[in-house]
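Section 5: illustrative case.
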């Protein structure tokens, strides 16, 4: 990035053009909303918190417009505001939880004894419709890897400022000097925080990154999975799973691993999912589905937002988010009639 500036400062770094923006209409904020919202999501781990933080960022930018100098640095300025908003939001708040980071996998018998833990703050998925559709292939690879659920879950283990430094350096790809100016600290402090953040993530189980866009084989695999799920053909469904595939269901803290336990669960406690419909969507740059269970009156009610991940030729994970508030965030209907396709 060639230009930087600080809100309210008279110092302009690089070759930025100093402009005193007294007319708020001169600030074009809307084009940056998508990437700012995605940044806030990575920081906060919730689409709802991300929306609130992004809107607060835009509001603060709008209010401070007369003091803003360096119109060409609008993007940098918004990231500075968003970082402060997110760090403020994280003060005194427990981190967003991820079942696989809480405990080892459960057996079906153990899982049946667990109750939902709604008092915890759980990681939530993010709708792809909120993401900017990047054209640069390198940017697409970075975005896919850093928006996936395991990566965002690992970020929650970092202190807020380390989290911000890692994202600003590795995702937004700012220079250390730019991040130092943004956080009002030294380059040495930024480099130290960056190294510590990377070391922490290196000790987290991030799974295998899959930066590929879905090809014909993956689309066939997903179509077979949806068909098997809606027919509730568990033999066919588990044949599509990786040998160590995982299934989670926040707000239940437990998670299962392996086709055998997945099948036992779906034939046992999960048996009332029989007859469900799956509506396709996209979350965290992965295939996702709104799962609707029969409502007993011929229609279907929202039950879970399912995110499916693929590794090689098989499905590696199925994450069922039971917080149906996310259906609205994904633009999914709140009910399906019996005649719905």
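Designed sequence:
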């Amino acid at each position: 990035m060639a230009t930087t500036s600080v809100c309210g400062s008279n110092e302009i770094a690089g070759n930025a053009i100093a402009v005193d923006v007294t007319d708020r209409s001169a600030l074009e904020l809307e084009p940056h909303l998508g990437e700012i919202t995605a940044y806030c999501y990575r920081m906060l781990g919730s689409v709802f918190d991300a929306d609130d933080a992004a809107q607060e960022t835009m509001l603060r930018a709008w209010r401070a417009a007369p003091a803003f100098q360096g119109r060409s640095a609008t993007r940098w300025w918004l990231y500075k505001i968003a970082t402060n908003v997110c760090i403020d939001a994280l003060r005194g708040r427990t981190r967003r939880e991820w079942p696989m980071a809480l405990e080892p996998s459960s057996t079906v018998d153990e899982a049946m004894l667990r109750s939902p833990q709604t008092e915890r703050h759980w990681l939530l998925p993010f709708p792809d419709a909120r993401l900017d559709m990047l054209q640069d292939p390198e940017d697409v690879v970075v975005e896919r890897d850093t928006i996936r659920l395991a990566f965002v879950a690992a970020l929650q283990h970092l202190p807020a400022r380390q989290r911000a430094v890692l994202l600003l350096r590795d995702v937004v790809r700012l220079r250390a000097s730019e991040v130092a100016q943004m956080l009002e600290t030294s380059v040495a402090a930024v480099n130290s925080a960056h190294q510590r953040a990377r070391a922490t993530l290196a000790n987290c189980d991030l799974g295998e990154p899959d930066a590929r866009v879905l090809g014909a084989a993956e689309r066939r695999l997903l179509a077979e999975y949806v068909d098997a799920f809606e027919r509730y053909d568990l033999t066919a469904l588990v044949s599509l799973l990786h040998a160590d595939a995982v299934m989670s269901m926040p707000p239940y803290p437990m998670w299962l691993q392996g086709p055998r336990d997945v099948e036992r669960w779906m034939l046992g406690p999960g048996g009332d999912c029989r007859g469900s419909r799956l509506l396709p969507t996209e979350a965290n740059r992965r295939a996702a589905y709104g799962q609707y269970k029969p409502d007993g009156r011929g229609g279907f009610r929202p039950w879970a937002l399912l995110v499916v991940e693929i590794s090689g030729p098989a499905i590696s994970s199925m994450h069922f988010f039971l917080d149906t508030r996310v259906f609205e965030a994904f633009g999914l209907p709140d009910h399906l009639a019996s005649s719905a396709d």
